[in-house]
Amino acid sequence: MPRAVFRGRIRKRKSKPNGNFKRRGTLKREKRGKTQEQLDAEIMLYQAEKEGRDKEEVKLEIEKMKREREKAKLDEEMDEYFKKRETDV
């Protein structure tokens, strides 16, 4: 094995982390936090638990709300697309 390759491998080995510190990706996740939808879902689950309602029922409501939001977003995007398309023609 040529010396240059051997030295490169030694450098690579030295530069690897030893696991005594947090990974960079976890810090980014912590800074991002939770979205408003996630917070709303947690609050709904907490309220349901407090009131004694079924959690599964509330989870279904949350999924339904999520689908409605996605559908509304897609509708807006389609409207924008067709408006743009009409102006281009």
Automatic annotation (TrEMBL):
Residues 48-84 form a coiled coil. Residues 4-85 form the Chromatin target of PRMT1 protein C-terminal domain. Residues 1-32 have a biased composition (Basic residues). Keywords: Coiled coil, RNA-binding. The keyword Thylakoid does not apply. One of its GO terms (molecular function) is RNA binding. Residues 1-35 are annotated as: Disordered. The keyword Cytoplasm does not apply. This is Chromatin target of PRMT1 protein C-terminal domain-containing protein. It comes from Galdieria sulphuraria (Red alga).
